Structures are given as C-alpha cells and as structure tokens.
Structure prediction request, 945 residues.
Amino acid sequence: MGFKNAPMTSAKPVEDKAKLFSSEICSEIDRWIGKFPEQWRQSAVMAALQVVQDDNGGYLTQELMDKVAAYLEMPPVSVYEVATFYSMYELKPVGRHKVCVCTNVSCMINGSDRIVEHMEKKLGIKLGETTGDGRYTLKEVECLGACGGAPMFQIGNKYYENLTTELVDSILEGLE
Amino acid sequence: MSDDQMVTIEVDGRKLEAKAGELLIEVTDAAGINIPRFCYHKKLSVSANCRMCLVEVSKVPKPIPACATTVNNGMQVFTRSPLALAAQKGTMEFLLINHPLDCPICDQGGECELQDVAVGYGSDVSRFVEGKRVIPERNIGPLIATDFTRCIHCTRCVRFGAEIAGIRELGATGRGEHMEIGTYVEKSIDSELSGNIIDVCPVGSLTSKPARYQARAWELVQREAVAPHDSVGSNLHIHLRRNQVMRVHPKDNESVNECWISDRDRFSYLGLYSEDRVTRPLIKTEGQWKECDWQEALDFAAQGMKKARGGDGDQIGALVSPTATLEEMYLTRKLMGGLGSRNVDSRLRQGDFRGEESAPWLGQSIADLDNLNGVLLIGSNVRKEQPIFAHRLRKAAMEGAWVGFVTPFELDMNYRAEQLVSSPAGMISDLAAVAKALGLSGSLVDDAEVSDVHQRVAEKLKTAEKTTVLLGNLAVAHMDYSLLRHLGALIADATDSVLGFLPEAANSVGARLVGVAGGDGLDSLAMLNSPRKGYLLLGVEPDWDFWNPSLARQSLSEAEFVVALSAYRSASLEENADVILPVAGFTESSGTYVNAEGIWQSFNGSVKPMGEARPAWKVLRVLGNLLDVADFEYNSSSQVLEEARDSSTIQPGGNSSTPGELNVRTPAAGLVRAGDVPLYASDALVRRSNPLQKTNDAISAAVHVNPQVAKDGGFSAGDQVMVKQGNTGATMALVIDEAIPDGCARIPAALSGTGELGGQFGEVTLEKA
Prediction:
C-alpha cells in the first residue's frame, strides 16, 4: 500500500453527490472523472476545482473545496493541498479580470518588471491586489510556458504576448 | 526477479547479503551502517523528499537517496565518499535555512534527529543571511503541541495520518517557501493514535502538549512497562524524573504494538497525579471519613471482613477491576478462598452469564490480524476499544480483506467496511440470518429472515481464506451475550473461521487464567443481584465500572462491610465503602498482564507509590496474614507470579462456546439502550487524565437517537430528557444521530451522569424533563 492509493479515499462516501452542485457542474466534473480509471476519481480534483471556481466568480471557498472533496470521495485536506499549491486557484475573491503576469526568467529578461510597474501605476494597485471597482486583479505568476513571446500575461483563458506598455493599455481598456 | 532471490552488494567496502528488491536503507540499517535520514520511516511509505540519505552508487552519475533505491546485485555503495558527504552536507545546509536556532527552549532538544545529524553534517556558520520563515502556533487539540516554524517538511506526520491512523487530517498546504504542515482549517487532530506523530516527527514541530516544558530529555530515566488499559498489552517506555512520570513512549515490539501506542496508553499517566489520589488509608466511622495509619486500617478491614463473613464464606465476594495485575487477582482469589468464598469476578461489564465459554482470548496471535482475508466483528467498536487491534485490522483491510460489523449503532470507520446496523435485538436476528444463509439450522436460526446482506456476509466468510469472527466489548455487555457468542461460534464453525474475542481490559485474559473470571463462584451480576454481606473491591469505582451501576451501589450500600483497595477516592466509593486502602497506581507497582494473545508480560514498578500507598499485592498479603489465611507469606510479586503460573491450568487455546438456554432476553419492541464505554472512560486512571478528557473522544453523558425516534417522541436536539430504565432514571441531553438504528438509544456508560442508570443494555423510555 502506498500513500497514493487507499488512504486518499474517504471511508464513508457521500451518497447523494448530485445534491452537492448544480447538474451542469456535476456533469462537467463527471466528464473529467470519466477520463481516469474508475478507482482514481481523485485524479479529477484539479479540473473539478477549476470548474467550481469558474462557476463561483473566479475563487474558491472552504465550503466549495469540501464539496469537491465529498464529490471525489477524498479527504478535504487533500483538496486544500491542491488548491493552495497551484497559482490558478484563488482562495479569496478576485476582480472580474485576473491579470496573471509572468515574472519568471525569460519574461524578466525581456522587461516584465517594466510591465508590472506600468500596470501597478495605471491601476493604482500592487501585485496581489484588486482595484476598488472590482475590475482587475494583478497577480504575479511563475512561467506559463510562453517564453517565446516574453514578456507575457494571461487574462482569463487567453495569453497576451510580446507586451509593451502601449499594448498593455489597449488590452486593459478593451476589457469591460 | 523473484522476491526471495538474494543479491550481494557492497557498502563502504563491506559485502552485504540482501533480498532483491529490498530498499538500500533497509539493508544498511539491518547491517548497522548509519545513513542520515528524516523522511524515511520503516512503517511509512517512501517519499524521498528530505534528500538527507543521498549516497553514492557505482555507475550512477549523481548521488541517489538510499530510502528510494532498491538493491541490485553487485551494487557498490559509498555512504561516506566525498560525493556522498558533499550531497549530505548540502542537504543539511538547505534544511537548516529555515530552521530556528531555538534548541535551548525546544522540547525535542537532546533527542532531536535534526540536532543529531546537524552535529555530523551541519556547518558551524550559516551562509544564509535572509530572514527565516515563521509560522504561528496552530492549535490541533489538547494532546499535541505544534511549532511548525521548526518543521523540515519530511511529511512523516502526514503519511502517518493517511497510512496508519487512517484519517488524513494533516496535509502540506502551500508551495515552496510557503508550504506548511497543518490542518489548513482550525481543527483538532482526533485520531485515537494521534500521539504517535510526536514520535515520528524528527524535529520539535510536534511535541507532547502535556509534557511541554516539563523536563529535558537528558534528565529523564527510562523504565519499561506494559500498558494498563486495553488487552493489547502495548509495551511502554516510562520516562521519569525524580520519582515522577514525565511522559510515556512506545517500546518497539513488532508482534504486539509494533512501534505505536494509542493515545490512551500515552497520556493516561497524567491521571496518576490527580487530586483525588488516596495517599493515606481512610476509614469510615459513623459516616465520617478519617485518615489513619496502615495498621489501624488493615485491622479495621480484616475485622470488618471477618464479621461480614460470619460463619458462611459465601456471604462475601470480591469484585476486581480487569486492569488489576495477575498477582493482585491471584491473591484476591486466594484470600477469598481462605475465607471460604469462591465469589470473585472481574467481568464487571458483562451483561449475560448464561452458558459457558473458554478463556476469551483473541484465538490467534495479534500479528495474525494483519493477514486476515475476512473478519466479522460482533458488537465491537474496535477503534475506540482496542485502537491497536483496529490498526491491525485496517492493515488487513488495506490489503483487500473484507471486514464486517454487526453493531447496534453505525461506527465511524477509517476504511470501508460492511456494517450491519440494527437494534440490540436486531443484532441477534442479523447473526441468526447469517447463520441461516450458511445453511445452519436450530432454534434462533430457523426463524431468521435472510436478506442479500446476510447472504453476502456468509459468502465473504465462506470464500475468504483466512477468516475470523471476533466478539467485542459491546457484545459482552449485551443482555444476550451468550446468544451472540453462540451464533458467532456457529458462524465461525460453519465458515472455518477462528472464533476470537477482543477482551476489554489489560488483564481480562489473565483473570480467566487465575480463576478470577469464570471460576465456580458467583459471577459479578449474581453477586450484586443476591447481595452479599461483605465485599472487597479492587480498583473499582461503583458508579463507573459496573454493567449496572445502580444495582452495584444498591448492593454495596446494603452490605455490612465493604473494603476498597483503590488509588483514588470518588463520591460513589466514599458513599459505599467502609475502608479505603490506598494502593499503587500504574507504573508504581510490579506485576503481570496477560494480553489478548495470551502473552504473559511482567513489569517492575518504575516509581514509588504516591504518599503512603502500597502495591495492592502487598496490601492483600497483609490482609491475608491478618485473616490467618494459610500459605500467605510472599516476599516479592514474582513469588506470587510463580505460584499463580503453577496453579493456572487453563491455557489460551481454541475458543469454544456452550450456549445456555436459548431464549432472547432483549425486548424486540420499544427502545433498547446500547451502552458503550467511551474510549476515555474505560478505567479510573484514564478518567482522571485531564488532556484526554479534553479531546473530542471524551464525550459527555447523552442519549443518542435517530431523527425518527426523536420525532416520534417529540424531542429536538439538545433537549434535556428523562431516561427511565427499570426503576432507575437520569436526566441528560438528547443528541440526534443518524448512526443510531430504529429501536435503539445509544447511552454511553461510565460517564458522569450515567451512574444513576441501570445495565448497559436494557429497555429504556424517554420523557421530557
């Protein structure tokens, strides 16, 4: 027995899982569960958290994480571990547009510092903060794998590459 | 490559034989070659995250972790080569980056794995000048103190929770510099084995809360003992300073407790220093208690016993705690025998004495439990009764064993098991139905209605290879215990399973071997039902240690004379006894326990008894002398032990059960009480350990019923209800609990407030208070 199998499951699964989320969310999570072998429901945890987070306006609460744990039959603390490890999960409310700006090596060399400084000044917030009108959140992230287009940031599901301050202005203004 | 194929490896020039597939660190450990490590633990899965055990291996370009490397034939390993040392020192430097230099105020100081290894591999000056990470103290309950600033993220505690305790309560949240061990949400660690994370933690992150700042490791003296609570007989190390027990640790014994102990065994010692310890003999004259010297108290006791006995030895009886030592039990029986009485019993919580049974032992070795393929537990909340057995059974379950329970309320499990939950009467019909599904017949069985579940249980037990049927504390306390045992025996026989018992207390089996339980005198219930004129109580508290505490107090209060040998005073004892002779508690006396497997484990006293208390065997010896009992000269407890061993004719062997009359006493309708003894209410010592009493397992008196029963009675959660049981009654809070079946009210016993009630099982009615 290894750490990764049996102890990851909960001893008493919740019987009525359909009650935990809306039917759309349930079927979406189920779709992800279906991609893994039957005894590895827990493998869908990352996708499930993403689905639930998107539905909740971009952030997770402890209650939602507990529900994901119950849905996937795993201990809640295992879900907290995943949710606190990855930078794409938010544990506090965020703005409508989460600007994830990469400051890792390639982007840094190509001037991400300037981009960050510009945005901080423009939006009047520091990294990790949200504007008062709830429109933008600035977030510093590690490499997103788009080094070829450094410097870059991600907003929603979209990557914006080869950023300049002018480009940043037009991108931000183009958002609601 | 087959597993038993042997390979030869060379470590630091030494040739070693090893099984192919063994881990390198196992092989070097067995050969006594030291490789530093933090995250590796022999009982836990390999995580290889601390990197401290990096060694050089021939033909491998980089140093590799010994804990995650399997041995190969011809492998050359260098544990102290320049490459290995450089890797180990580098790892050490990283581990120390965030580790505070607070060893002088750290409880782990002096016995810290990090400290030890740092002496060998650390550098004298740190190159790290940045600020260190600090984590605020997290409260994870009354037993374990945390200081996660010291944590080196080995994750042993996390793996312990998941793999051994079976509840993943701790986790590593966050990432990199921000990673921390914890529960993430504010919550206590509730496993009954939680204290073991204190031992597995290689640094001072997790230490004993009750022992915090009490002593330094190098001031402590180590003695050995055997745990005095459940029938596992866990081996202990007692750490003392100046005649005081400072803490209790497990002593490795692979075939008994491995390297674990339950929290009850670890923290119960605090009960030794309870304020109600009796330190001088007490006698009651004209309703007033007064302290006196031993001579006066012993004379008083002897005279009183003699008078109560009158001309008929049968008029007196002894009720003995099943946690008394074998020597104490033997002398009690001999003393009573000398007075012409055969009335001695330690089965104080047994609800039914019909029929006959063999010595109720496990029926197999403790280690055998690991390898079972099918287990049926009847009336056993094993996790809260014998936590180490529960761990063994869980191991079997993790390997694919089928585990089923016949239980009067749903149990909180740490693995997936089949639970047949029904009212106390339903337990009998469930077992009868399983028996019927196995093709058996006879009274009880013929009328049973077999459902799919019963078929499945029967099928599992029949098809699995190594199976056992075990009866637990709740079965013994059941008012139809003899029927449960009979049906259990039938099922075991029909399925080729071993019939076994999970004895309640440290010396339940020993009591049987020296005739203190199951002798030819009156049993404990009979002694109370037809009251005796005189009683001798050994380590017993009337309110809490009897199946029917109301009956016990009634009979004791009517008796002419009651001698109590006790380490503690308690209200119910003071009310009913005439003399209290202060006896030694846990660690204060030598003795022997016979555990569930039938192993005789003797131990010495570690500390002097408190005040004027004396070991109970010495008190009994003097009483024997004063009462002119023949052959009562003993100079040491080992003499008593020798005599007890010689006189014991019973050897634990195959279990058997002869049923008595086969009529069901449990009411089929109405509400029937199922009274379990909560984990931390089991004996006088545990009941006085404050930290254990603050845990979530220390529940208070309440009546638990399911929503339907509550609705029918018009109760809502938290209502004060009057529980009526026969002519007894008590008021307590109502708890609505889905785990309770129809027709059953779970009212735990041995708690403050339940002493006013009757038997642990029996019909009850609820009224609004």
Q: What stands out?
A: The mean pLDDT of chain A is 91. Chain A touches chain B at residues 1-3, 6-9, 11-12, 62, 75-78, 80-81, 84-86 (CB under 8 Å). The beta strands of chain A are 97-102, 136-141, 153-155, 158-160.
